[in-house]
Amino acid sequence: MKNWKLVAEGLGLDIPDADLEGSVRTLDALCASFSPLAKEIPEDVEPAVIFSVEPEERA
Amino acid sequence: MTIVDAARALRAKQVSSVELTSEAMTSISRLNPRLNAFITVTEEAARARARQADEDFARGIDRGPLQGIPIAVKDVFRTRGVRTTCGSKLFGDYIPDVDAAVVERLEDAGAVLTGKTNMHELAYGITSSNPHFGAVHNPWDTNRIPGGSSGGSGAAVAAGIVFMAMGSDTGGSIRIPSSFCGTVGLKPTFGRVSRYGVLPLDFSLDHMGPLTRTVREAALCLNVIAGRDSRDDTSSRVPVSEYVPTGPVSIQGVRIGVPENFYFDNVDPEVESAVRGMATLAGRLGANVIPVRVPDIHALNVIGRVILLAEASALMEKYHERREDFGADVLALLDQGRLLPATDYINAQRLRRMKRREFSCLWNQVDCLFTPATPTTAPEIGQMTIDAGGKAEDVRLASTRLVRAINVLGLPALATPCGMSSRGLPMGMQIVGRPFDEALILRVGAALEDATGLSGRTAAI
User: Coil, helix or strand for B408?
Assistant: First the structure.
């Protein structure tokens, strides 16, 4: 499991300890579920983000 | 009375838009102190628009079936000259100078906007217990949540205040309140309805759609709001169909998939029984009901949560220092999104592409899926966990468990009532279709509605 306090400090995020503590279990559980999925991705799969270049529309 | 009934009565001069709007205003005055469904009521403008609608009818101008019909929109849709809070202190005084595309289309069709509905803060949650504008109450039991984030829209429609209220759905926010409030809720295909002018929660998961009391009303509203909008980069060029089923609705031969895995795990037995009962009914109406194994929905939910955390936190970047202006639950989610590495977000979007391909194979076997919309009926306000089929589970995670994956896939989904529980609370099911095949899921929903009469109910409050 990650040390989320160190992650927050490393990123320069000003998250009070009390608030951070409330999120640790959620983040740990999410990462535990997500990491194995991420390791299954074939190299040629591109992200499904939205970006496309089209000819400029003329006014 | 449905929109169809009201439209007919308006044209037959049996009722006027001014009268319908006055009734809506009277209902708001009577019920909003108990439901807290509205953040802003636009009474003066609504009465003026109603008078205009009546004058147009008198002149023979007919803008379609929404002309003169009182409606509401969630306070996430920008409305020109009318405060748009997004349920947030951050936007408490925000008065836009543009209308959202959906608002433009509804107003062009002659609808009468009565106000802006209350919601979960920033549309980032499912209780609609808003720390800044107060909790929305479920009209079937005011001690319970209406669901969310479009909770005010669900409550306003279920209580019969308005015929239709618009919602937005990023991880179930139309279908959850529909399930808890006993309304119909339609989340269209991603790109079917423009997002222009909506205060966003998440770039790639937000969908806009109507909450109504019947399926045909949802179909009718979709016909008004669907279509290409060049101001939204994700708006689709796929032609808009005629969505309203006409005449006797047949579902003969429609292949309905009932999942063998995931969707009935840890579901309240009453809800499971009601959904399976609807599948049996569909079979009696001529559909082919087929047990199917669905791809890994838990994985899709995890992918969806990573995408949502990252995109929502990116969107709110400039507000992160105003910690005191957020409710505790939303602040925690925003913090979590800031802590996730960028690689997780990119990999979640790669996994999304993989899972979409995997899921598309399912459409070779079936035309739509029947699932519960939520695993339980509405929890009580302030309740933190629910017992979903013998397992205690966080209310937010349980309530989104059966709906979130469909946002990741961008598929159309209809939430529709499937019965009342022994405690007198509505139970909802979800009908999921192929991309841009809203017409089919609406047809199936209308056939069930005709056979059961379960939709169209108003909570006696």
Answer: helix
